[in-house]
Amino acid sequence: MSEPSQFVIPLFPVGDDGSAFHLRNTPGGEMQRPHVIQYGSELAVHADIFNVRHGTFTPGGDPATLVVFDFRFVGSESHGRRFRKAIIDVRFAPWDRPVGSENDPEVSSIAPLGFCAWNPSTQEKETKLSFTVSANTGGLGGMGIGSGWETTKKMKKEKRTTLFGSMRIEGERDYGTQNTAKWLISENEIESHGIPSHLRTAILVKPKGKEKFRAIIGINAEVDILYGAKKRIDELFGKHVVDPVYFDAEGKRKPFGPEITNIDTTNLSMCDLRAIGSQLPTTC
């Protein structure tokens, strides 16, 4: 079985030395990067390519590619630091043109998709309100007579762990087919245990044309207030620190990762992505 293609995004307190990301393709035009890079830190995000399957969208139809990512959020138990929220986006573009070009690969479907909430908890908050009414007697020099009362208001607040997956158009155009998969995951604010440590996502992509294309992974991770570090991978692309993941031209594309059952690569449009993505609670 092939080794997973992995990116490790270490998060450091703002201003720490060594906090730069160093995620590169090997020289020579590496495809579907099967390379592991990790830098030590108290908090880290791991983004793995778990599986890639190339085929056609329908039998005898246009080419299509299924990409499965694993995202892991590693907290620091010793310092009680956790991830409160994470925004993940995977944008697709031709290999040599910016996101939003006419020939962007189309994001046809994703999993998880839509809104999901689980792990509910309720918190009751009690607020006391005091009122005082006073009246003066005997004119300006008179004595004030006051009376008052107090009331208590109780409110219940319910919070859950939430996940929202969507497909979007991003980049240099605001029309046409969607080119981006996006997920937002947030912790239960009452329990404050952080977001789930693992999220598996599946994306079905329809390349336009036979040329190479690329995926650009962005993560905006928010941790607890004491830590206060926010990092986004694609903020550093202009500095040539983080490389996109490249997929080869049609005819040269190769599968990657372990076999996944019940996938017909000649008819990827019928693939049940929900069975591949993270197994969410049945209430979602």
- Molecular shape: elongated
Structural class: mainly beta
Mean pLDDT across the residues is: 76
Share of helix among residues?
under 10%
Cα gyration radius (Å)? 26 Å
Quick structural overview:
This protein has 284 residues and is an all-beta fold.
Describe it for me?
It is a single chain. With 284 residues, the protein is mostly beta strands. The protein is 0% helix and 46% strand. It contains no helices and twelve strands. Strands 4, 6, 7, 8, 10, 11 and 12 form a seven-stranded antiparallel sheet that branches. It has a five-stranded antiparallel sheet with strand order 1-2-3-9-5, with no helix packed on it. Strand 2 and strand 3 form a beta hairpin. 31% of the residues are buried.
